[in-house]
């Protein structure tokens, strides 16, 4: 009888051990198991939208956007040159080609002239670092379908097989990270003249050959090879997210990819998803609502007012001034957004001096006033109730009033600031505290006796509260 009891105890222990092993292997989360990894986020928007946005992105505030590709060769009109020439038969593009290129010249012929012989990614990264930006996003593939890396799905339409004969994306990713910045990639879902895509389009999205054989494997290759921490999705608007199978990709990205813990994505994942789904909202190009938003957002804008790609015929008046750039930054950050500043390099790999000058000037301003921008949060007021062109941010016990103009009388009345909460006020970049006084429910701040013409583009008051 005792032997039988001992036998039962041994068998019970064995069964218990087997049960625990089963739980560990098959039921608990395990990074090596695709089945269990997929349980963290499910392929639906409710689950995906519940993922917390990695903190680094909100704290960064400033990024650089780069539109570079075969469209940088004609550099006429915009980066949509191919579509306007061959898609809509735009007269200006047709006339440009007739004047400057031989008959039967094709868009593919431009790729041979995309040479990038002056491309120095370390120099680019140094400019971006000097601008005060914290992350960089490069067009890995625009709507033309040409990839800036040797994509296995690009069928020789890439920067290694034709044109520069160089992995442009990989070289920049290395340089940007070496400079201490985060690297991201823009990727267009659709391609204007890809026959697989146009077949699916003609079939009213009932087929998905383009997604299955081109777009999805291309995206996964991009993530696995270069590990971008921003995926800036675009080119989604013609088809629903179910055609792109966006939620399935995002589940893979969040659960299994090499950047699953730090990657951030925007909201362009299918027709109707903009400003509704995704990590942060990019909504429309140059989105700058001017009021506080409930969801984290980004203002992706251009230094060239008319184009994302480089334009050879652009005039000085076509570019934002440094003051306009700082103004846009203040408006964006005060309302809870990030600013993604776009430049368009030349076909031979140069950042044009006008872009470099604007970026370095912004960096000089941020070197003095950056504490009013980085890692801040919106205050209870976004702009002042009395003073024009004053925007607010806050951090810890400080409120920052970003005044875009020097007050003509050297006195600035802040209607949003109750003097009772004020301890001291400083002008960033200057020594000592400023004199202030109560005026009803407002605070009147006296600026130093300086000449506004010799000063910076905007002026930040650091209001230390009690």
UniProtKB/TrEMBL annotation:
- Gene Ontology biological-process entries: fucose metabolic process; glycoside catabolic process
The transmembrane segments are: 7-26
Instruction: Identify the residues that the record assigns to the Alpha-L-fucosidase C-terminal domain, covering every copy.
Output: 382-463
Q: Which GO terms describe its cellular component?
A: lysosome
- Entry-linked InterPro entries: FUC_metazoa-typ, Fucosidase_C, GH, Glyco_hydro_29, Glyco_hydro_29_N, Glyco_hydro_b
Its EC number(s): 3.2.1.51
Q: Which Gene3D superfamilies match?
A: Glycosidases, Golgi alpha-mannosidase II
Q: Which GO terms describe its molecular function?
A: alpha-L-fucosidase activity
Residues of the Glycoside hydrolase family 29 N-terminal domain: 33-371
Which Pfam families does the entry mention? Alpha_L_fucos (PF01120), Fucosidase_C (PF16757)
Could you list this entry's UniProt keywords, alphabetically sorted: Glycoprotein, Glycosidase, Hydrolase, Membrane, Signal, Transmembrane, Transmembrane helix
Name the domain of life this protein comes from: Eukaryota
| SUPFAM superfamilies registered for this protein in UniProt | (Trans)glycosidases (SSF51445)
What is the role of the protein in this entry?
A: Alpha-L-fucosidase is responsible for hydrolyzing the alpha-1,6-linked fucose joined to the reducing-end N-acetylglucosamine of the carbohydrate moieties of glycoproteins.
The family line of this record is: Belongs to the glycosyl hydrolase 29 family.
Protein name, per record: Putative alpha-L-fucosidase
């Amino acid at each position: 009888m005792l032997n039988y009891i001992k036998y039962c105890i041994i068998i019970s222990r064995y069964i218990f051990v087997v049960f625990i092993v089963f739980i560990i292997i098959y039921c608990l989360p395990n990074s090596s198991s695709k089945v269990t990894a997929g349980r963290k986020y499910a392929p639906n928007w409710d689950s995906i939208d519940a993922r917390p946005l990695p903190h680094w992105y909100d704290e960064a505030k400033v990024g650089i956007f780069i539109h570079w590709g075969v469209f940088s060769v004609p550099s006429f009109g915009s980066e949509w040159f191919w579509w306007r020439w061959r898609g809509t038969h735009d007269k200006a593009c047709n006339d440009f080609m007739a004047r400057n290129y031989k008959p039967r010249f094709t868009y593919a012929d431009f790729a041979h002239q995309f040479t990038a012989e002056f491309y120095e990614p370390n120099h680019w990264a140094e400019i971006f670092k000097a601008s005060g930006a914290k992350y960089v996003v490069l067009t890995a593939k625009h709507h033309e379908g040409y990839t800036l890396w040797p994509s296995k799905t690009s069928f020789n339409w890439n920067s290694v097989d034709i044109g520069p004969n160089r992995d442009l994306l990989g070289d920049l990713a290395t340089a940007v990270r070496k400079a201490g910045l985060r690297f991201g990639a823009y990727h267009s879902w659709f391609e204007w003249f890809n026959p697989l895509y146009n077949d699916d389009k003609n079939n009213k999205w009932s087929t998905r050959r383009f997604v299955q054989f081109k777009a999805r494997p291309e995206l996964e290759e991009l993530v696995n090879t270069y590990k971008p921490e921003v995926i800036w999705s675009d080119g989604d608007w013609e088809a629903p997210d179910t055609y792109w199978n966006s939620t399935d990709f995002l589940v893979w990205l969040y659960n299994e990819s090499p950047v699953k813990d730090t990657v951030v994505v925007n909201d362009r994942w299918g027709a109707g998803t903009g400003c509704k789904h995704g990590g942060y909202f990019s909504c429309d190009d140059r989105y700058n609502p001017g009021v506080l938003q409930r969801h984290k957002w980004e203002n992706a804008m251009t230094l060239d007012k008319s184009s994302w790609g480089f334009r050879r015929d652009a005039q000085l008046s076509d570019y934002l001034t440094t003051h306009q750039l700082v103004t846009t930054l203040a408006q964006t950050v005060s309302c809870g957004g990030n600013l993604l500043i776009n430049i368009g390099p030349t076909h031979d790999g140069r950042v044009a001096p006008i872009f470099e000058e604007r970026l370095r000037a912004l960096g000089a301003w941020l070197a003095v006033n950056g504490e009013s921008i980085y890692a801040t949060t919106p205050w209870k007021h976004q702009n002042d109730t009395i003073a024009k062109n004053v925007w607010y941010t806050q951090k810890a016990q400080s409120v920052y009033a970003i005044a875009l103009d020097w007050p003509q009388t050297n006195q600035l009345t802040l209607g949003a600031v109750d003097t009772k909460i004020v301890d001291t006020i400083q002008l960033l970049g200057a020594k000592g505290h400023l004199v202030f006084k109560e005026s009803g429910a407002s605070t009147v701040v006296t600026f130093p006796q300086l000449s506004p013409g010799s000063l910076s583009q905007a002026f930040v008051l650091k209001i230390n509260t009690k």
